[in-house]
Fold Carboxylic ester hydrolase.
Amino acid sequence: MYAIKVVAIAACAVQLVVCALPTNASLPVVDIGYALHQATINETGQYYNFSNIRYAAPPTGNLRFAAPVEPTEVDRTINDGQQGAICAQGTPYWEEVASYFFEGASTATLEFVEAEVEAVGKNLTISGLSAPAPLTSEDCLFLDVIVPESIYDSYGESGAPVVVWIFGGGYVAGSKFGSGNPATLISRAQENGDDGVIYVALNYRLGLFGWLSGPTFEESGTANAALLDQRLALEWIQKHIYLFGGDADRVTVIGESAGAGSIMHQITAYGGSNGNVPFSQAILQSPGYPPVYSDVQQEATFQNVITQAQALIGPNITSVYDLRNLDFATLAGLNTIITARSAPYGTFTFGPAVDGTFVPELPAKLLLAGKFDTSVKIMTGHNSDEGAFFTSPFFSTEADITSDLTSVLPTVSNSTLAYITGTLYPPVYNGSYPYTSIYERASLITAELVFTCNARYMNTAFLNETHSYYFAVPPGLHGEDIAYTFFNGDTTTSNDGLPVNATVAAVLQRYIMNFAQTGNPNGDGVPFFPVYQSNATTVVLGTTGLGSVQTDTTANNRCEWWQQALYA
């Protein structure tokens, strides 16, 4: 194999380039064939950090909107990983309203904020945007490898398990390092005297850079390019992780929200007809994706991009070719504005879509049909209030719910819409259903359509031989378990204004690391975590009832109906 591992201060006659180190010669260097990467060291955690390793050629020029390719340039200069990058980002302006709402703002304040952000969004110009976040670059397809010293130093022995983090962020925001510091996760894996795990985190393209699709776009662009970014990174790990002391046969991917939704798409890729996925286990936390199933939806998104480009840049922008020829700053600005204007409330404009190839059908339907890689071991989790953040606080009428559904499901028939609103989620607020108001009803629809039922589909597809947790630390909003996954011991850590409960965090982290190391979340210092089984047994992670079990809240007829995608 072309890639070989070398250690700094190795024999100069064999590896002359390694001897000419511009930095600390005691730190290891890994040769991956096309590049040399030197680690930094965390003395406290006793681990090496090989940061910002390129796994793909720059997705620029003709590779913009195209499938990623392996690096083509060879650079034998030692890279210490100090220069990194994040992909172009975007944030919907409705999130500003949501933030005020959950801080307890009055209706009058919320109405004012909504009017303000709508006015700002309407008047945005590319030249008037603030400077992008530091490190923002189109050349952003990098990953980090964090290795305990004991694992790296025992290279050549049996390989260590590997944990790969795929971040979430609505498919429009986030980065490999933005979710948290994995130091405590790594240390959890060493509590019983084990060497621990190798931790890898990767970037992938976001927004219009990674998630365009549809008939017109696909005439000269590749749909779901970001999923292909992730797949190339996972294949890179399969090829190269042994150089760091890892075992390619013991790779666990973990992701939250869009990260977990991406993992669903990886497991169901090609309808399971293209061999095994490049990992053996998966932990899916609140797996989320919008159901973009039709050419109508995809074409509408692409034409929206063209229309806004014409208004913001010039009327001559009519095609993928024209978008490809824009300079990065201009296209990134366009992405920022389109994402900011995302509508309706709770949506992000961009995300994975059925493309007939990598995504031959919605993952939910592929799982139901048995068209996926069945060899993967699965652990899932979802939170107690997944939909609230994405539900407009102004919802007060039946028309609000109907309008929102027709925006999210644009091809839904009137009869199917009536079934959703009248039978699946009837307007009954006496406590006999899991809601007592129009707002709570709308929130439940969003939660089950976009997030929680996806976890159920994973559990049942894998014949209930899975493990499932229910994150119930109040208020249990979407994303709140991230602070627990990456909790590093500081009990003042804020999680939507609330301190993280260190006991709950320790249990969750041990479950994750036990599963990554053995395929079973059980071990010392944690409550027993039973298999999901046909009775949908789920472990509760909460400030009360920690470790208790209950029937999964998604084991219901509503999720069964959504999985069939009869709205398509």
Remarks:
- Confidence is low (pLDDT under 50) at residues 1-23.
